[in-house]
């Protein structure tokens, strides 16, 4: 005997839309149109910018950079009645950014792997080259904003020393000094991103970024056998002419060689490796 259940009057009208039946025991597909394009590259860049800046570590690093810059500008403002050329103020604003800002780029890469969010990232966007490229573009945007901010702060500090301390205005700074300051910040940031992609471990990447170039500079200045090579491969030494004046053809060649070794090579190798590394 089969039991029949009778629905009360009006029940069919009160019921919601009938879901699509499942196929072969699988859940029914969701209604609506399917996406026809991937995630826009601009959205990936915005996400990477948030990873660099909108985190606790990123915020504290930016606060630390601001404190160091404020302290350096205060010392110049007070010392010797503020009698310092504009180049000194520019150096006081760009050096802290050039030293500490690359750590933000390192953390933006290594946090994906240390906090195990790379699986989510590469699931939402399986084309890892686009993700890595978005990280590079985001780092460049942060670097450009940092350079512009350093120029504004240096100009304001020197103008304040002239107005409130009676200092003599000295704006005679060669154009290559601006190029050197900007390049120092941008190249350091890209170098940090490259080391982060290559090692994918925060302590290892930070130590490699600070220790390897410094050790090479020390060895190149002390060991006569590698002194000639250091003139071509020491990034700190090859960038010095940018801050002092115009560069000759040989100095440009030395700068390009050192940039290729310490910036382009880690960045290219890191992007190649991050597209093939196992995600756990």
From TrEMBL:
The keyword Transmembrane applies. Coiled coil: none annotated. Keywords: Membrane, Transmembrane, Transmembrane helix. Residues 1-35 are annotated as: Disordered. It comes from the Bacteria. The chain crosses the membrane at residues 60-78, 90-109, 136-164, 176-199, 206-226, 252-274. This is ABC-2 family transporter. It comes from Phycicoccus duodecadis.
């Amino acid at each position: 005997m089969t039991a029949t259940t009778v629905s009360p009057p009006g029940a069919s009208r009160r019921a919601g839309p009938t879901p699509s039946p499942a196929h072969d025991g699988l859940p029914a597909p969701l209604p609506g149109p399917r996406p026809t394009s991937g995630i826009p590259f601009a959205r990936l860049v915005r996400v990477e910018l948030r990873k660099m800046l909108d985190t606790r570590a990123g915020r504290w690093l930016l606060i630390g950079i601001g404190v160091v810059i404020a302290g350096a500008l205060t010392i110049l403002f007070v010392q010797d009645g503020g009698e310092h050329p504009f180049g000194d103020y520019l150096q006081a604003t760009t050096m802290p950014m050039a030293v500490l800002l690359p750590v933000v780029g390192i953390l933006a890469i290594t946090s994906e792997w240390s906090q195990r969010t790379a699986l989510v990232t590469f699931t939402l966007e399986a084309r890892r080259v686009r993700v890595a490229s978005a990280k590079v573009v985001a780092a460049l945007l942060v670097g450009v904003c940092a350079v512009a901010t350093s120029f504004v702060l240096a100009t304001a500090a020197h103008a304040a020393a002239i107005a409130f301390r009676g200092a003599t205005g000295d704006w005679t700074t060669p154009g290559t000094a601006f190029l050197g300051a900007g390049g120092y910040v941008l190249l350091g940031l890209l170098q940090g991103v490259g080391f982060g992609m290559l090692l994918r471990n925060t302590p290892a990447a930070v130590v490699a970024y600070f220790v390897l170039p410094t050790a090479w500079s020390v060895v190149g200045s002390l060991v006569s056998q590698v002194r000639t090579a250091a003139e071509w491969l020491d990034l700190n030494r090859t960038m010095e002419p940018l801050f002092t004046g115009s560069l000759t053809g040989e100095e440009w060649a030395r700068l390009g060689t050192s940039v290729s070794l310490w910036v382009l090579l880690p960045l290219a190798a890191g992007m190649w490796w991050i597209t093939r590394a196992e995600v756990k």
